[in-house]
Amino acid sequence: MRQRRIGKGVTCLVFVPAAHGQPPCLLVNTSDSSASIIDCTYGPPPGVLTNLAVRHRVRVAHALLPLKCCYSPSSQGYLISASEDKEVYIYSLAKGANYKMSYLKHHQVPVVAVATNHQDTLLASADSLGRVVLWRRMDFSHLPD
């Protein structure tokens, strides 16, 4: 069993399989105004988790509410997070992108949950008043990598 303390109260964990030359990782929202990308190292022996290492931490307005995050496999991957400042944060996971942040604005109150559909053509965001917004897209090509 491997353990790693990554910050204050964890409110969401999302496993991301290896892709685009990146190792498998965990996306983790914590109530210290951040989300972390944690690399998972396996083997030897094969299939045995041997290390967890924080690759990077990004800023997300998060102190009180149980915010969720999700992963989009579009392009080279994106960490998408809810936030208490009414925005949906989108961070590129592409190598060399320096975790460039973009955001979507529509909600009038804190955004508490985000999710993508299986085809990765819709992003849903939900706020603390129960409103759900659907963001239709074909890809994230309009966002900088």
TrEMBL record:
Cross-referenced Gene3D superfamilies: YVTN repeat-like/Quinoprotein amine dehydrogenase (2.130.10.10)
Alphabetically ordered keywords of this record: Signal
Cleaved signal peptide residues: 1-21
Protein name in UniProt: WD repeat-containing protein 13
Organism: Symbiodinium microadriaticum
